[in-house]
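Intended use. Records like the one below are meant for learning the mapping from a protein sequence to its folded structure. Do not use them to infer anything beyond what is encoded.
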Amino acid sequence: MKYLFMKHTFLPILAAVLFTAACQSKSQTNGAGDNKKDSLTTTTAEGAVAADQSPTSTTDISKIKVADAKTILARKQVPILCYHQVRDWREKDSKAAKDYIIPIATFKDHMKMLADSGYHTILPDQLYDYLNNGTALPSKPIMLTFDDTDLDQFTIAAPEMKKYGFKGVFFVMTVSLGRPNYMSRDQVKQLSDMGHVIGSHTWDHHNVKKYQGQDWVTQIEKPTKTLEEITGKKIQHFAYPFGLWNPEAIPELKKRGMKSAYILATKRDENDPLYTIRRIIASGYWSSKTLSNSIKNSF
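Structure written out for the chain above:
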């Protein structure tokens, strides 16, 4: 199979695909308001202690028994934001591209709004524990995720998050490591060492729905091994390129050690909700007030 990076076409093709097909921002409220029965935090003394834990707290999710789908779907969804590029718009950026490019000042406003509003960032292992066991989360939990390994996520987003004690999840596409305007292996390692989580986002952003045969080795197994070598940690969380998935992909991800997988704003799978966890794109057009409203309306 010919992959996107061949013949030096990877970067421009990927950029175009990301900006035109990656995410369906118009559907970001799909599934909103579903299953808001359970509180995200408990009111017991024990629950209060659990809720105050740092997002860097470690949870051995390999020992957690997976709950049935009905139990998981009944829990209140945690807001999860998806960012891509964090940089100022350029004249050549298309109207569609600007959905996925957050101007620096806008990103800073987003982070300040989240902090001022009392949000606390959580990480995938905490979410996994909550969804399966109902373990208490901090008050107003939120997850910040970043796709595609863009360099500005390291140089701009991470330092801004640090001001507020926020931690995030960086879904890395390994073919881009060390390329111009993308993160290096050392920078990915630094993020991991700082307490952020590194997740898999395939080798070259190939659509999971089109995988056949060796594609699972090329796109999942090898990148996972690469990221584990870089971070020295197990890689157990995955984000689908373009947010696109199919039921056939889920057992393949399970075979390869993934404990959860993240889609975008479409409906969760009724049988495997852990492998269809919803996120919304934080649009470059959104003010902090719009983002606040979108969080409340989408989850």
